[in-house]
Specification:
The complex is a heterodimer. By secondary structure, chain A is of the alpha+beta class. Chain A contains three helices and eight strands. Classes of the chains: A alpha+beta, B alpha+beta. Chains A and B meet through helix 1, strand 1, strand 5, strand 6 and helix 3 of A and helix 15, strand 3 and strand 7 of B. Strand 1 of chain A pairs antiparallel with strand 3 (428-429) of chain B, so a sheet runs across the interface.
Chain lengths: 139, 836
């Protein structure tokens, strides 16, 4: 066998090995029930429960934020985040939290949210009429 | 009917003030460029494959003229789109969507390429420029290379052509009218609608940054430039000419390395300077997918050199060059199809062109790799029988390119998670700690890359012997080790660490823990070796010959870059650590890092070496600048240094708070300051409590307690108060704050005996505490007072701050620039050689 072939085989082995090893880092999407059951780190997609209390008091601790979220299957769950409250969190349309269950709370390390205005800015502001016209277009 | 037709085309009738000529002309140019590029492709290929010389040259002429024609048309589209945006022609959707009247010029320019259409045009513009340069310089390879360039231009033009073919929308035309795009809005029933439209939507505030003005043009120049080495590879495969293409392809490949690299580095500088990433690289999918083509083109370049000097690695040269262009297209597909969705901050809005993008990618990747495969299967590609010698330069250079390949593969594999989900119906999500995920593998590949860049230079092509000059490699390696130890000791970089090989998901036996030199230490050593090895090579082996210096300069720069990476990222220090976190229960462990800290106005906190004070804010619409004062004291406690940083926040009605950091730059470090949150003073609530109290009673408010001292029959009255015929009683109150300050205040109860004993009161206020007191009644028997306390929620003034020190970050920028400078020097050298 040529050296080249040996090298290519080794490289292939390293590549396959590292890719397989990497996939153990991957997380999955789940709901809160599944998160509770398997205890692993997961991504939960859902919505903020706006009438439940959000706790963020930066004067006490700027790195603590808790809120209640409901996943797509309707399971409600208290979520705590070590970090500041994202700006305009109340206005979020959808929330994705990454983290795992810890006792009764879901501890998340990352929050991403989808704001309606952030993605759909198809809103024409008119001069005299006063009222804004919002049209959703399917571009 | 006919009238309508003309009215719609020339804007004379139904709608007032529309400047329709611009859109028609623009769209005409787009369609023209599409067909001219198509013609150019056909003509160039006809020239390539026709047998007779006279036919060849007339086809070639046609190819040239039509390519120049399409380039002029692209230039026309470019100019028209600028005119449209610059003049705020809001009858056009693109101008309305991406710009507004209040934008300064540099952002008006940026809004040109905010949308997909504009950025495709930018790409086409550069490919036109490169193509015209190619017409003059490609010589023997003009026909096939330009043919392929023209063909990619056809595909690009199809992305902006915006026509319907059998009900399918092909491309998205930037000259679409607002009233067509949003036809259902009632305002478009009115002929004068244009007068009513106040302003455009404006540029996304996250993109309002001068980097947005300069980063995309450079990046797209890089993307466009990758086409040409690819076209060379395909051309040579078509011609079965295995050697003639190498020399002319080299300068183009080097140009790509420099241009694309500069574009990516500028993206990093942007992220570092104005986004809240807290670094210059966040392993974001879009960042990764612009880096992978660069890694591939660098690997392609090195294989091209191996082939030129040692006749090995021809097949892998083709693979890398085809791959780099395919990855440009793959990256385009990922960012523009909407498939990345939530996983990236960069992605464009989906314009429904997924299918078209996929065809573009599949076409070129399939054509390229199929052609290569055919040539391999037919055994048409020559190869050298003799194996590479183990101590030859070509052998180790090739291994080095495999390192680049592995690096690119890992990035691609994880970045493509949304694609795997789509194809295999999986439910995967990105890793919990993305940065850790990539770093844990890339750091080892970086170590290898650092060592290779230095050591392999010392070996010679085709000679399997270690040359005498290699002693310089050994000396510089020793120097690197010594320096790495010294730096590690002085900067507290751990030199050993526990390593874990965790494949326990496969088999429990594959979980191994062992102590070893730390990856950061090894990385630092390898990076220093790349620096000193290349310096030694430059001075002692090629003896400072500028002509030959390109490679050494590039590799030296790469070493400097790696040193910058490991020190600035590995040793970055968050100084805004919050020590005063209040325990909200056991939800967080004590050792978890709390990066954000609250700074009340005018209060000072010690962060690292600095005493930091938030002194107030300044408004410069639409931005708020927060003044953060840094003071550093020397050993005697004297002030050694004072500076003020002005991180800003834009309160955007559409997106809330958009924060931009501010950074104090030193030669050896940066102090990075970012406002992550400000108080919400919009919704301050007033509260009112009613209390019935006797003398000596205490009432609690939010921030103070109020003691009822006594009833005073002779209170101090306002000067304009007419006391005659009235009975007055002062209610003496002491309000004490939690901080211990005390304030006296006296609301007054009034009985007007001349007016039927009607009662009234004079309220008193303590503005500092946000309190107002009023008396409702006094019970004559019990002497109990009914007090009304209004409490205004105080507007809080504080910022939540994150401050990070990045040591030696300048090495990252410097190293990157030197690398690309080296690439351009080499390009110049190769170009000169070809013309000699």
């Amino acid at each position: 066998m040529k050296k080249l072939h040996i090298i290519l085989l080794v490289a292939l082995a390293v590549a396959v090995g590292s890719i397989v090893a990497m996939t153990s880092d991957y997380t999955t999407y789940a709901n809160f029930i599944q998160a509770k059951a398997n205890g692993n780190s997961v991504n939960v997609v859902g919505y903020l429960v706006k009438d439940k209390e959000m706790q963020y008091d930066p004067q006490k601790d700027p790195n603590y934020f808790s809120f209640t979220m409901i996943d797509k299957e309707g399971n409600e769950q208290k979520v705590v985040y070590k970090g500041g409250k994202p700006q305009d969190f109340e206005r979020s349309e959808q929330v994705v939290v990454k983290g795992k269950m810890d006792g009764e709370v879901f501890r998340c390390s990352e929050i991403s949210m989808k704001c309606p205005s952030k993605y759909v800015n198809d809103e024409i502001t008119l001069k005299e009429d006063g009222s804004n016209v919002t049209v959703k277009t399917n571009i | 009917m006919l009238l309508n037709f003309f009215a719609e085309r020339f804007g004379s009738g139904i709608f007032q003030g529309e400047r329709l000529w611009l859109g028609h002309l623009g769209h005409f140019f787009i369609v023209f460029s599409f067909f001219a590029a198509l013609l150019s492709f056909v003509a160039y290929f006809a020239a390539e494959f026709s047998q007779k010389d006279s036919n060849k040259s007339s086809w070639n002429k046609m190819g040239r003229y039509s390519y120049v024609g399409q380039s002029l048309a692209v230039l026309g589209v470019f100019v028209l789109l600028f005119i449209m945006i610059l003049n705020h022609m809001f009858e056009y959707h693109y101008a309305w969507r991406h710009s507004s009247t209040e934008l300064p010029l540099k952002y008006i320019i940026s809004s040109f390429w905010e949308g997909q259409e504009g950025s495709f045009l930018l790409w086409m513009f550069w490919l036109s420029v490169l193509g015209v340069v190619g017409i003059f310089t490609l010589k023997k390879y003009e026909n096939p290379v330009m043919g392929i360039v023209a063909l990619t231009q056809v595909f690009l033009a199809s992305m902006v052509v915006g026509i319907y073919v059998f009900g399918h929308k092909i491309g998205s035309n930037p000259f679409v009218l607002l009233r067509d795009e949003m036809a259902s809005a009632p305002v478009f029933q009115r002929a004068n609608y244009l007068e009513l439209i106040k302003d455009g939507n404006g540029l996304n505030p996250l993109l309002q940054n001068y980097w947005m003005t300069i980063h995309p043009p450079v990046l797209f120049l890089g993307f466009a430039s990758v086409t040409i080495p690819f076209a060379f590879a395909i051309a040579s495969l078509l011609r079965k000419d295995w050697t003639g293409w190498v020399k002319p392809a080299l300068p183009w490949t080097l140009f790509s390395v420099g241009a694309l690299g500069t574009g990516i580095l500028m993206g990093g500088a942007w992220a570092y300077e104005s986004l809240s990433f807290g670094g210059f690289w966040a392993w974001d999918p879009v960042e990764n997918m612009s880096l992978v083509p660069w890694l591939m083109i660098v690997a392609g370049l090195h294989n091209l050199l191996i082939y030129k000097y040692a006749k090995h690695s021809l097949i892998s040269t083709y693979i890398f060059l085809i791959a780099s262009f395919s990855f440009v297209l793959y990256s385009t597909f990922l960012t523009r199809s909407g498939i990345l969705g939530e996983t990236s901050v960069h992605a464009f809005t989906d314009l429904g062109m997924t299918g078209q993008l996929l065809i573009y990618l599949a076409f070129f990747a399939t054509v390229g790799f199929t052609l290569l495969l055919i040539r391999i299967i037919k055994k048409q590609i020559p190869s050298v029988e003799k194996e590479e010698d183990i101590w030859s330069r070509e052998f180790w250079m090739f291994i080095g390119t495999l390192v680049l390949l592995l690096s690119g593969l890992q990035m691609t594999f994880t970045t493509s998670i949304p694609v795997w989900n789509k194809i295999f119906g999986l439910n995967l999500a990105p890793p919990e700690d993305v940065i850790q995920h990539y770093n844990s593998i890339q750091i080892w590949l970086g170590i290898l890359a650092g060592i290779f860049t230095a050591a392999v230079q010392f070996l010679s092509y085709k000679i399997g012997k270690i040359p005498a000059t290699a002693k310089w490699a050994a000396y510089s390696f020793l120097l690197s080790v010594v320096l790495a130890i010294a730096i590690s000791l002085s900067m507290n970089i751990a030199m050993t660490e526990q390593h874990v090989i965790d494949l326990s998901k496969l088999s429990a036996k594959l979980f191994i823990k062992f102590p070893f030199l730390s990856s950061h230490f090894l990385f630092l050593t390898a990076a220093l070796f790349a620096v000193f090895g290349n310096l030694a090579y430059f001075f002692f082996v090629i003896k400072g010959k500028f002509k030959l210096s390109g490679g050494s300069i590039a590799h030296f720069g790469f070493g400097v870059f790696l040193v910058g990476v490991v020190i600035s990222q590995g040793q970055k220090e968050v100084i805004s650590i919050n020590h005063s976190g209040i325990d909200f229960g056991a939800e967080f462990k004590a050792n978890e890092k709390m990066d954000n800290i609250l700074l009340l106005k005018d209060s000072t906190l010690k962060m690292g070496d600095y005493f930091v004070t938030y002194t107030g804010s300044e408004e410069e619409k639409p931005n708020f600048y927060f003044l953060v004062n840094y003071v550093r004291k020397d050993k005697n406690g004297d002030t050694a240094e004072v500076f003020t940083l002005r991180p800003n926040a834009q309160i955007n009605p559409k997106m809330g708070l958009i924060a931009n950091p501010d950074t104090k730059h030193y030669l050896t470090k940066d102090v990075f300051t970012h406002v992550s949150s400000i108080p919400d003073n919009e919704n301050l609530k007033d509260s009112m409590t009613v209390a019935e109290i006797s003398v000596g009673d205490t009432v609690y408010t939010r921030n103070s307690y109020v003691i009822f001292r006594t009833l005073n029959p002779n209170p101090v009255l306002p000067s304009d108060f007419e006391k005659e015929g009235k009975l007055v009683v002062g209610i003496e109150l002491d309000a004490q704050t939690l901080e211990g300050d005390s304030f006296r205040t006296t609301p007054i109860f009034v009985i007007d005996m001349t007016d039927n004993n009607s009662i009234s009161s004079i309220a008193s206020a303590l503005p500092k505490l946000g309190l107002t007191f009023d008396v409702r009644r006094i019970d004559p028997q019990s002497k109990k007072v009914t007090l009304e306390i209004h409490e205004k929620e105080r507007a809080a003034d504080f910022i939540i701050l994150k401050a990070i020190i990045f040591p030696y970050i300048n090495l990252v920028w410097l190293g990157g620039l030197i690398t690309f400078l080296g690439a351009f020097i080499s390009m110049w050298r190769r170009h000169r050689e070809n013309n000699m």
